[in-house]
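Support reply, case 0932

Customer input (verbatim):
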Amino acid sequence: MNDSTLSRRKLIGTAALAGAAALLPRDLAAQAPAPAPAGAPGGYTIVTSSNGLEAAKAARQALIQGRDPLDAAIAGVNVAELDPDDVTVGYGGIPNEEGVVELDAAVMDGRTMRAGAVAALTGVKTPSKVARLVMEHTDRVFLVGAGARRFATAHGFPDESLLTEKTRKIWLHWKNRLSDLDDWIEAARDAEDPDVKRFLERYGEGLFRPQGTIHLSVRSEKGDLVGVTTTSGLFFKIPGRVGDSPVVGAGLYSENGVGSAGSTGRGEANLLTCGSHTVVEFLRDGLSPEEACLRALKRIAEKTHLVPRHRDAKGRPKFNVNFYCVNAAGRAAGAAIWSGSKYVVGDAEGVRRLDSAYLYKKDA
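Our regenerated output:
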């Protein structure tokens, strides 16, 4: 890489930061970290959520082998969907309040502007594959619940148990601690179970209602843009609850010539602002990927003041939302409401985890 290339990259990064700062309240602008180079203009670029390191590696290998970008994206998220140790996605995901694992997923192909989605799907470890079949084999976009299950069965997906022994114990621990007035009680050593203990150490007793998702967008060498989002949703959710992940325009949006974006975090906040579509529209207006993500997050933060229980004493969101996007040129970014988030980028130089830009810095 020559000096002129380095100088040009530095100039682009500085301009992106300045533009993002102009969009933020004055007291927040100084908190946004300097953007790290992400993606390689003209080549392929993968951007995914912080839990997508292995997914990005699989997607990158598929692209190197010459596979279709949507094939590569789905192969990437399948790594997470099939991993029983990832309790936020696919097989081994945390169940709903009745102990049933319900999965949501969506795919979008920016070449054709077609999409497919499933929600509250049971018994399928890889809902992203079913979502693709909805796109390719129906004239519809979204199938849910029993209808999605019948569609999966018709296409050869067996009805498998998605609840692992680990997630069953975690669910029972949650259920036993819900109330002192019901018939369920916590046994003395429940919290000492290694699986439960590790879960509590990672997610905490206080929150205990996190949600997990993986989003992965690909920009191919030809410039084609695709995206996939898949999740087991909010931990211990109301049966039938669907967040933003499988909703086209909220959990993901891809359009050739413009960009591809997706999200993780509090789905309801993102649903009400059509977040991923908003990010792509900001890309269309000429904003950099980081600027586009930050501006969409700012919109979410501004709307939060209407719901008192969702804001802290300073009026800031109590929850987090993350966006990940790549533009038509192959530049990628990740941004979150709160500092401390990460995102993953894959390109010809390899796969790496980077710090996300943010609106608010967490209190020390």
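We compared this against your earlier run and they match. Two observations from our side: Residues 20 and 291 are 5 Å apart (CA to CA). Residues 1-37 have pLDDT under 50 and may be disordered. Please reopen the case if you see a mismatch on your end.
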